[in-house]
Structures are given as structure tokens and as C-alpha cells.
């Protein structure tokens, strides 16, 4: 039976209580898998010159009361973020009551047999499908942002999910690769969209105006985009999307329209996020903040350490410049990076040869 958490994590007395809680939970999960404990997991990959080497993950099985109803999750695959993706997948399976119901849809910009093999050997029983995202879709449409990683075509793949996924997928959870799930993903899957195209945590206390340039706000025609709405910031790294409504409403084209405006007149600085805000802000289903404890990667310039916000946590998100695997490897981790480390299946080449 898969490990199940009846409640997501609480942070009543700060970060240290969360660290302790997660460590206790991780110790408990040893009895819920059919494979060996983490420190005895075997390597099934040959050393790669280009990709990290990973241990084989434990096998997780459905609980007794599970149905066959699938939970669809979409993520991108990039060699630079593969270590994060592997940790994210493990965390989702480990905390799911029905892990065999989770189906992953991975999007990549070009075929990479090594990545495919890596997924199969790290998660032999994972249900997944790979899709090629045609970078030509965004050729000439991407404007330079404040961080190079935000300019990559694959960062815009989320705009085209409705064009890529099979017609029988009516709902999908889109997740960035730098997340860790610490709650049952089915709870997020069952969010009532109340007729909206997408659901995500909203942050209405954030300074919404800073996501757009002054040229945007002083242009009455552009600023009129939010007329009749009370726009709030939301992070596009965690979204529940009604695929049919997106497709029927032509929302990929609506996002593209704002990308075209950006090419003519610089109205924002942050990659794929602002056009999403222009189309959806103030018109989404807001959900509990526990589903996106974002910003753990710090700011987009220096990636300085940040602390967790107080309150319950179901998903940790290292959005921002700093990524936990890079900071841990540099031996200059932030405190929150130790919450990501237990899900890291990475094994260095040195360790692989020793084993």
C-alpha cells in the first residue's frame, strides 16, 4: 500500500518544525515500498557523459480503496533540470494514496534517448508518455527577459498543452520541474474549477503593477486589458487546467497575441508569466496557497535564500534563480534546500563506480 498523509504539513513555529516533520515522514515511508530503502537502492544505468546518474526509485502501489481513475500530470523534460524532475516525480508518487493512477505527460524540445532510458530505469513502473514540443511554434515570438532560462522555448510549452495532449485528456495538472509534492496530488486534481479554465493559488497582496513596465500602464489601450477584472498575481508553475475549455476558447492564441505585443513594445520582463497574467489574472479559480509555496529559489537575479511563508504546505516550489540541487552541490545550500534533498535520486559518477 502506498504511503498516505491525512494532512499536509503545518508550520506553526517556523522552518525547523517543517524540517523535523518531513524527516519523520521520510523515515516512515520505508515500510510502504516493495523495494529496498534508499541507501540500498541499486544503480541500473550505465554512466552517462551528459546526464546525471540516478538510483532506481522504490515501487509504489495503490491503496486498497483506489479506483482506476487517472490523474494526468504534465511536465517538461530538459537535461539541465532533469535532476529536479526526477525528485518531483518521486515526491508525487511517494505522497500519493493511488500512485499507480498518476500518468505523466512529459514534453521535450527534441528527442533524447538517454533521457528516455533514464526515466525507464529510474522509474521502471512509471506510467508516462513523451511528446515533442515543436520549438518553431514560438520562433520569433519570444522576447528577451531578465533571466536566460526564462527565454528557452520549452518554458513556453505550457501555453500549448491543449494542442499537444490527447483529446481524451480533459484535465491536467501542469507542474514545473523545481517542485516537491508533500501531499496527495489527488487532492489538487479534484479541485472544483467552478467553470474556470484554470485554477492556481492567487496572491492578491502582491504588487501586481510590478509585473509590467511603465510603458504598459501609461498606455490606456493596453491597461484596459484588466477592465472588469480584479487581477491578482498567480504563479504558472502549478496550474490545474481544463484542457477542453482551453482548446475551445483558443487560449493559446490569446497568450500569443500578448507575446506579439511584447515584440512591438516592451510591456513586461518575466518570460512566459506576464502573458498568462494578461489573459487570466482575475478570472481563475483561486485555490489554497498551500499548493504553491513558491519563491524558494530566491529572486530572478541573484537567487538569494528565502524562508517559507507561515501556514500549511502541500507543495514546495523553488521558483527563482536558485535551484536546490545546484546549491547543495556547491555546499552553499539555503535552509529550505534540505527539504528537497530527501527526494534526490542523484548519484555522482564517483559513487556509481564505487557501487
Task: Give the topology.
Elements: H1 15-28, E1 53-54, E2 71-76, H2 82-94, E3 102-108, H3 113-122, E4 127-132, H4 161-164, E5 171-175, E6 179-181, H5 185-189, E7 198-203, H6 214-217, H7 220-223, E8 233-234, E9 238-242, H8 243-249, H9 251-264, H10 273-280, E10 285-287, E11 315-317, H11 324-329, H12 337-340, E12 346-347, H13 349-354
Parallel strand pairs: 2-3, 2-5, 3-4, 7-10
Antiparallel strand pairs: 1-12, 5-9, 6-11, 7-8, 7-9
Helix pairs in contact: 9-10
Structural account:
This protein has 13 helices and 12 strands. It has about 350 residues and is α/β, with parallel strands linked by helices. Strands 2, 3, 4, 5, 7, 8, 9 and 10 form an 8-stranded mixed beta sheet that branches. It is globular, with a radius of gyration of 20 Å. The protein starts with 14 loop residues before the first helix and ends with a helix.
Quickly give the CATH architecture: Alpha-Beta Complex
CATH superfamily: Spore Coat Polysaccharide Biosynthesis Protein SpsA, Chain A
Q: Count up the helices.
A: 13
Question: What portion of residues belong to β-strands?
Answer: 5-15%
Q: What is the 3D shape?
A: globular
Major beta sheet, specifics?
Answer: 8 strands, mixed
Helix fraction?
25-40%
Quickly count the domains.
1
CATH-defined fold name: Spore Coat Polysaccharide Biosynthesis Protein SpsA, Chain A
Rounded to the nearest angstrom, the distance between the terminal CA atoms is 30 Å
SSE run = HEEHEHEHEEHEHHEEHHHEEHHEH
How many strand segments?
12
Tell me the radius of gyration: 20 Å
The stretches of 5 or more residues where confidence is low (pLDDT under 50) are 3-8, 10-45, 350-355
